[in-house]
């Protein structure tokens, strides 16, 4: 027994060095490493794709682009884009919409169930029109603010027969990543889903909305945009799983 | 069980627990519970919309002219419909295409229909390139549409317009025409259909120059 105790004692003494401490905490370090590795792998597997309405152009840049000599492509058909001139930017002019209502917060509501856009200033409805929301990719629901206004830009994305490449997309009002309100010159099927996630409008409607909305300025957010799955008869904006 | 075995079991247990914890943590951090929010819009002060309605029944007592119009998506053109109520309660529908400011007017279609039938200008009447317009017709036999050139020229040899429903139904696709929703491009009209059992059928394109009917994989 004494011999045994002596041997145990000897071993304990040996473990008093730094190696003994390392050996003691090694399992914990190992567990931590495994936890980190598993978490990383699981997150990567479960990773959501980038939030993007225009899979090709959204990753490059979202700046203004005016390409008056370019041709577009939508649903396999060649499209002639409209000519864009900087004179079309009438930001300095008085807004067409809400000209008689000088007060009140501006707020845009989109009812995806009826494909209808409502623009309010205070309690005054200043524009109601049909839109085309996402057909090939959903338009995100939620409450947003316009974060960028561009007179025109190029939008491109999709694969195969659904590929599109559209220069001079006019009157772009981004409200969530590269999801925006904008004019659509390549189709006239408003009132039906027809986009890759953005909110398409007739160019004539997009222009008046563009002139009326505010982009962010200093600490002030841009015009509010609420995308609703449905607006009920009781004027309730219903949002299922809003992204924000 | 030896000490070595015990250590190995402990180690394996720790590994399993840490891996499980990692997965749980990762799933939880990506998990977003289903949520449903609802909030009120401002009380609307009703204002005219940009929609052009199909005209309602007009009084028969006195001749009356109603006018409706729809601008093209780019705002440069306008299609105007005047509805004149005749003494026998029938209505005469006249359609004029023009510039947005009403210059360069061109009569493109006129028809007199019994009181039980009507015509209208759909919201998506103009093709995106402003070359064509389509009109809605509601008759006793159902709704239909006709498509024509916006400059008044014949759409085909000897034809001023195409009857969209007639063209579609002549193809014997097995589905029946329901409505024309709008334009997929400058020459492609979108048609919605019904299946024989009454449920929604596939959508089709009518390719104007060739009169081809093309079935789509999606529904509008």
Secondary structure elements and their pairing?
The complex is a heterodimer of chains A (244) and B (220).
Chain A: H1 2-14, H2 18-45, E1 72-74, E2 77-79, E3 106-111, E4 116-121, E5 124-130, E6 142-145, E7 148-157, E8 164-176, E9 179-183, E10 199-201, H3 203-212, E11 224-228, E12 230-231, E13 236-240
Parallel strand pairs in A: 3-11, 9-10
Antiparallel strand pairs in A: 1-2, 1-8, 3-4, 4-5, 6-11, 7-8, 8-9, 12-13
Chain B: H1 3-30, E1 36-40, E2 65-71, E3 77-85, E4 91-99, E5 106-113, E6 118-120, E7 132-139, E8 142-149, E9 161-163, H2 164-169, E10 176-183, E11 188-194, E12 204-207, E13 212-215
Antiparallel strand pairs in B: 2-3, 3-4, 4-5, 6-7, 7-8, 8-9, 10-11, 11-12, 12-13
Describe the structure.
The complex is a heterodimer of chains A (244) and B (220). In chain A, β4 and β5 form a beta hairpin. Residues 1-7 of chain A have low confidence and may be disordered. Chain A has two domains: 2-45; 72-238, L,D-transpeptidase catalytic domain-like. Chain A is 21% helix and 30% strand. The radius of gyration of chain A is 28 Å and the shape is extended. Chain A has 244 residues and is an alpha+beta fold. Chain B has 220 residues and is an alpha+beta fold. Chain B has a domain at 65-215: YVTN repeat-like/Quinoprotein amine dehydrogenase (Methylamine Dehydrogenase, Chain H, 7 Propeller). In chain B, strands 2-3-4-5 form a four-stranded antiparallel sheet, with no helix packed on it. A four-stranded antiparallel sheet of chain B has the order 6-7-8-9. A four-stranded antiparallel sheet of chain B has the order 10-11-12-13. In chain B, a hairpin with a 2-residue loop joins β7 (132-139) and β8 (142-149). The interface between A and B is large, with 61 and 55 residues.
Bulk shape of chain A: extended
Taking pLDDT < 50 over at least 5 consecutive residues as the criterion, the unreliable ranges of chain B are 44-60
The CATH topology of the domain at 65-215 in chain B is given as Methylamine Dehydrogenase, Chain H
H/E element string of chain A? HHEEEEEEEEEEHEEE
Classify the beta-strand content of chain A into a percent band.
25-35%
Please mark out the parts of chain A with pLDDT under 50 across 5 or more consecutive residues, or reply none. 1-7
* Helix-and-strand structural type of chain A: alpha+beta
Q: Strands of the biggest beta sheet of chain B: in what spatial order?
A: 2-3-4-5
**At the first level of CATH, what is the class of the domain at 65-215 in chain B?**
Mainly Beta
Helical content of chain A stands at 10-25%
Helical proportion of chain B, percent range: 10-25%
Query: Outline of chain B, from the CA principal axes?
Result: elongated
**How many strands, which pairing sense, and closed or not: the largest β-sheet of chain A?**
6 strands, mixed
